[in-house]
Amino acid sequence: MQRLEPIKQSENLSDEVARRLRRAIREGHLKPGTHLVEQDIAEQFRVSRMPVRIAIQKLIDEGLVIKEPRRGAYVHTFSSKELDEVYSIRVALERLVVQYALSNWSDAVAEELECIVERMRQAASAGDRQAGFELDSRFHAILWELSQHAILIEVVSSLRSRISRFLTEANDVLSPTELNMHVEAHQHLVNVLKQGDVERAKDAVADHILDAHERIRAYYSYLD
Amino acid sequence: MQRLEPIKQSENLSDEVARRLRRAIREGHLKPGTHLVEQDIAEQFRVSRMPVRIAIQKLIDEGLVIKEPRRGAYVHTFSSKELDEVYSIRVALERLVVQYALSNWSDAVAEELECIVERMRQAASAGDRQAGFELDSRFHAILWELSQHAILIEVVSSLRSRISRFLTEANDVLSPTELNMHVEAHQHLVNVLKQGDVERAKDAVADHILDAHERIRAYYSYLD
DNA sequence: GCTTTGTACTTTGCATCCAATATACTTAGT
DNA sequence: ACTAAGTATATTGGATGCAAAGTACAAAGC
Q1: In A, what residues contact B, Cβ < 8 A?
Q2: Which residue of A lies nearest to B8 if distances are taken between CA atoms?
Q3: Which of A57, A181, B137, B178 is the most interior residue, by most CB within 10 Å?
Q4: CATH architecture for the domain at B80-223
Q5: What is the dotted CATH code of the domain comprising B13-75?
Q6: At what angle do helices A80-102 and A129-147 cross, to 10 degrees?
């Protein structure tokens, strides 16, 4: 018989619980500092405490939640310093991503990225911030995958996940002008990538991330 | 009353189990590919499966263990590609570490590092590889801490933990000459750091990490 | 009225139990 | 003798129960 792809139904309850908790944090339904009471969460999801415990453990290791022994788990309250930290690390790592990604570059990828940018442009003119955000995520995820470096992807996506709450919130308050600038920033990035100059591409992506940092930082200071 | 330091006895069984499993992997008692059967581990440690499950979950998130749904957890078998990946990320991040560390530099730190180098020198001439390794770890941990960037420390130490098994093994086969070279490499690093030139210091630490990479890579290819 | 001790309640952490699934072994059929 | 199905066993995933630690509130003493 022909060899077929093995099916992986990784659908544990704990994975699903973790996914939902992540989303709740990202979308602001679970605010920083919230005490995550296992029993409560278990009841809401109609499961036992066990998958909830495993899920919370995952979130702890992802840095979304902190735990105080025998007291419980709390949604991590991000300081502006930590935000700066995440971005300084991301700049360094996204440079690496681009370096490796370019060595796997192809016209098909270029086309895919330009397609996404085009759809971002449409979303921007329609004022659809949600769609724009998702396309932005897709755009960077494609670059990550293209790097073919699993651990790098793991680390950089984990970093992005930590600040996802700020990303979504800041995205919701983008002005139409900012939306357009954001689209053209991605267009510019694709243009540079297509030229294939590694150093220029690395600088371009670094600028792009630093821009995002400035935007988020502005939003964050607006919170205080 | 005077304010006293709060006591944190983070001693859960799961933390202790995780610590011991980590050490067992690092020291080679749990070889790559080993199936981690919860029941067996629980019996060996005389605890129930529950803390073992939490501990294994931690190790999964640290990248030391991989899990196949409904089949179990296995000690992760590191490929040479992953080794290269970890090092390429570490180079980028250790540069950041040094950059931040230098802004918190003090004579006391310089003295502490030189003290460690001196003890490394003694350990090297005594042929005590174990002590040398621990001092090496201490040396870098001090730089990490000096950076004052919690997330950076978390990521970079997690990366080092992933390859800890190779580090200890390669350390055990160091020749006397290599031991001495290793000591002087650290001495050189301290000298450069003391001069306070950020760019030179970043390059120096990058070279240092790349050297380590070469050494480990040589050991790894020797394994095949 | 304020502080401090004592008590009731909440929540975590660990153990045990049960069900579902995957693997290994055995047996039957060709 | 080899393949294939069926069964037994091992192992994970989830639910529940219980004890210890922590928290909050109330009562008693100053």
Answers
A1: 8-12, 53-54, 57-58, 61-63, 69, 82, 85-86, 88-89, 92-93, 95-96, 149-152, 154-155, 159, 162
A2: A69
A3: A57
A4: Up-down Bundle (1.20)
A5: 1.10.10.10
A6: 50
